[in-house]
Amino acid sequence: MSEKPTKARVLALWGKGGSGKTTSALAIASLSATAGHRTLIVDADPQRSASEWHSVSENPAFAVHSTDVGQVASLMERARARYDVVIIDNPPACYAGSAEIAKRADLSLIVARPFRFDVTLAIEWVGRLQRVGTIPLVALTAAPPSRLNTEPPSVKAARAVEAGRGFIVASADYASAHSPRTDSTRFGRRQYGQQQPRPP
């Protein structure tokens, strides 16, 4: 993300509670803001975790706006005019308005842990998004660490199930994601990035 986009990009994140969806949204927003992009998280998750983090963060590098999921689609065009990157943290369930969000977003990312129940729900999400003409990506989070460059069985199984259905799948190693070097993936009171968003 070293070059500023010529057009605002909208990324919609989907996934069940506890999948790492909001943490992923915060990490992506941090990377985007650090690269110099005006970045906004639209917090449509009823838990408001992103908004809570933002309220206690010192000098956050990106903006967070909380809203009802039914208002997200109409908000997206206004956000495109003011920001370079817009990240939508969607609710953990399908709501009225979800289909319209998926249609208007440039990219949808489904976040899931590499376990049977989580993967089953991720596949259901893929089906919903495909029915509205969206081809989502899938990210496996909290994956057990690799041993001798070999993925754990749970990660292999999840990747095989999802890839077999034509999904593009990536996984995040839990150990490396929580190492001291990876500040952008740490969820807490500390600042996610040093650079402030430019005013619109």
Automatic annotation (TrEMBL):
Residue ranges occupied by any AAA+ ATPase domain in the UniProt entry: 7-167
Domain of life of the source: Bacteria
Region (Disordered): 174-200
SMART domains for the chain: AAA (SM00382)
Low complexity bias (residue ranges): 190-200
Name listed for the protein in its UniProt record: Chromosome partitioning protein
Lineage: Bacteria, Pseudomonadati, Pseudomonadota, Alphaproteobacteria, Hyphomicrobiales
